[in-house]
Amino acid sequence: MLLHIFSYIDGIAIESIKPLTVGFLGPRGSFTEEAALKMFNDQGALLIPYPSIYDIFRAVENGEVEYGVVPLENSLEGSVGETLDMLAQTSVKICGETEVRISHNLIAKPGTRLEDIKIVLSHPMALAQCRSFIYTKLKNVKIETRSSTAEAVKECIERENAAAIGSELAARIYGGEILVRGIEDHKENYTRFIAIGNKPLDKGTDVKTSVIFTLRDVPGALYKALEPFAIRGINLTKIESRPIKGRPWEYMFFMDFNGSIEDSKIRDVLEEFIVRTTSVKILGSYRKIP
């Protein structure tokens, strides 16, 4: 997607081209960058790293970037709480989604041998997902956490006797050598990433809608709220509760279901659903990019 901007100098139209801008959870080499490339690389997008999920949401809200890419949930570890909270607190919409298989690698400065390693760096989630490898192949090494797998890879390349757990993309970007590939305990490890913005992406398959809602604290409230979906045969693909900030022991619900709000069937069920809740925020209808 290219935006064409025209300026006039001495009566002559000069066309300058501004690329689509997309923020992602950095630094370079993160799994979020892989997801951003998967969703936007065919559009010649300019990818901009941000240090936190909060910063990406604010950048999209403030118009610094047109889209942002953030992790939503992992198939092993569950949902990313900060992403759910920011979806509830901001005005941005979910515009698309994709999945990335999380394959962890042991990466080090070129020339490093496995027996040389004295310290392993990575994000806490990556360390947890490679626990068996660490305990069996890297006994007695020191473990240190970092804010991201990419940051760990970047640092270990500059240190002696150090290794990091990270992606193949990070190894390529920072010049690391992959000592051992695929060290994760479970191979069926996927993270679901979403594109946030104000306009749905016009590609992908399998339309899904996401909402956040709250209920009265009475028996049967959740059952009654979801009844219209069951009656009309609409499949709920995800539902979970999340604490409401500043209101102890009160909860909101995050829910995905098949279908688009452009469909009359979905609009009808939402009309019934809304009157059975205390609040509903529609996060958008969007497609999955394979």
From TrEMBL:
Gene Ontology annotations for the cellular component aspect, listed alphabetically: cytoplasm
Domain of life: Archaea
Domain annotation Prephenate dehydratase: ranges: 21-198
Keyword Transcription among record annotations: no
Amino-acid biosynthesis recorded as keyword: yes
Keywords: Amino-acid biosynthesis, Aromatic amino acid biosynthesis, Lyase, Phenylalanine biosynthesis
Taxonomic placement: Archaea, Thermoproteota, Thermoprotei, Desulfurococcales, Desulfurococcaceae
Pfam families: ACT, PDT
UniProt EC number: 4.2.1.51
GO molecular function, one term: prephenate dehydratase activity
GO BP terms in the entry: L-phenylalanine biosynthetic process
Entry coiled-coil feature ranges: none
Domain ACT per the UniProt entry, residue ranges: 210-287
Record's protein name: prephenate dehydratase
Catalytic activity: prephenate + H(+) = 3-phenylpyruvate + CO2 + H2O
SUPFAM superfamilies linked to this entry: ACT-like, Periplasmic binding protein-like II
Pathway as given in its UniProt record: Amino-acid biosynthesis; L-phenylalanine biosynthesis; phenylpyruvate from prephenate: step 1/1
